[in-house]
Amino acid sequence: QTPSEIEALKEDDDFKESNLMHGINGRLYGNLDAPQLVAGQKTRVYAMAVGAEVDLHSIRITGHSFLLRGERRGQLNLMPSEVVEADIMPTAGTWALYCQTNDH
């Protein structure tokens, strides 16, 4: 590619969006080691979102709810630059951890 084509890509919003990388614990999508939790033992979850005003996240763990500031919630909703901590009481089994944001 020519330098002018590269510069054009840098300004292309679709190209920029296609190169965003989302991760958990420093690992990119699909490469996270499974967290090892103990059934029945309270576990603290720390979640952080970075990015611009369009980078909203809603974290879920199937089969579980979060206790956040004394309130039971089905998911953690994160705005950009927000950090939350919540507790879960894991049960035995293998559970999916995911974000409900459509682009990742």
Which structural class is indicated by helix and strand composition? alpha+beta
The general outline is elongated
Number of strands: 9
CA distance, first residue to last residue: 28 Å
Overview features:
104 residues; alpha+beta; two-stranded antiparallel sheet; 9 strands
Give the topology, please.
Elements: H1 3-11, H2 13-18, E1 23-24, E2 27-28, E3 43-48, E4 57-61, E5 66-68, E6 71-73, E7 76-78, E8 83-88, E9 97-99
Antiparallel strand pairs: 1-2, 3-8, 4-7, 4-9, 5-6
In short:
The protein is α+β, with helices and mostly antiparallel strands.
Describe what this molecule looks like in 3D.
The mean pLDDT is 87. By secondary structure, the protein is α+β, with helices and mostly antiparallel strands. A hairpin with a 2-residue loop joins strand 1 (23-24) and strand 2. It has helices at residues 3-11, 13-18, and strands at 23-24, 27-28, 43-48, 57-61, 66-68, 71-73, 76-78, 83-88, 97-99. The chain is elongated. The longest helix has 9 residues, at 3-11. Helix content is 14%, strand content 32%. The protein is built from 2 helices and 9 strands. The strands form 4 sheets. It has a 3-stranded antiparallel β-sheet, with no helix packed on it.
